[in-house]
Amino acid sequence: MARGRDEASEGTGRDKPLYMISVAAELTGMHPQTLRVYEQKGLVTPGRSRGNTRLYSQSDIDRLNLISKLTDEGINLAGVVRILDMRERMLEREDELEELRRRVRQLEDEVHEFRMQEKITALARYDGQGSPEQVMRRLLLNGAPGEKNEK
């Protein structure tokens, strides 16, 4: 469900534990005891201060607001647990999909570069001297064979 955290691994931004339970209760419109029950059931995992005080992040507040909305719609806590689990898995799949899209774009760029190298090498008169990379380097530095460089 909610990912476990400890003070040493906390990041910044939305996941940084900032709000004590009284503030989190006020922000969500819930009773502090409700927040403790939700933590007990694994619906939310607030961070802890050095003194073991619960500290809720903005992500925790958002999660609690979603739980409140779902329970207000008549969904019991078992249903909420399933919905939150499916939501988390969906978000993980979206992250994986975005990473795959990024990798595909990178591979497309590499394939395009490779094809351009092949075309340039095919256009160059290859005299058997050197590797295709050396031919390309000569072409790029000196122009096409038989051409005069005007400087």
Proportion of residues in helical segments? 55-70%
- Low-confidence segments, given as residue ranges, are 1-9
Strand order in the sheet with the most strands: 1-3-2
Category from helices, strands and their pairing: mainly alpha
SSE pattern: EHHEEHHH
**How would you state the average pLDDT, rounded?**
85
Number of strands: 3
Kindly report the CATH topology of the largest domain. Multidrug-efflux Transporter Regulator, Chain: A, Domain 2
Overall number of domains: 2
Distance between the termini: 68 Å
| Biggest sheet descriptor | 3 strands, antiparallel
What is the CATH architecture term of the largest domain?
Answer: Orthogonal Bundle
What is the C-alpha radius of gyration, as a whole number of Å? 29 Å
User: What best-fitting shape do the alpha-carbon axes yield?
Assistant: elongated
Summarize the structure.
With 151 residues, this protein is mainly alpha-helical. The protein has helices at residues 21-28, 32-40, 58-72, 77-123, 132-142; strands at residues 19-20, 47-48, 54-56.
Description:
- With 151 residues, this protein is mainly alpha-helical.
- It has two domains: 7-75, Multidrug-efflux Transporter Regulator, Chain: A, Domain 2; 103-142.
- Helix content is 60%, strand content 5%.
- The protein has helices at 21-28, 32-40, 58-72, 77-123, 132-142, and strands spanning 19-20, 47-48, 54-56.
- A three-stranded antiparallel β-sheet has the order 1-3-2.
- Strand 2 (47-48) and strand 3 form a beta hairpin.
- The protein starts with 18 loop residues before the first strand and ends in a 9-residue tail after the last helix.
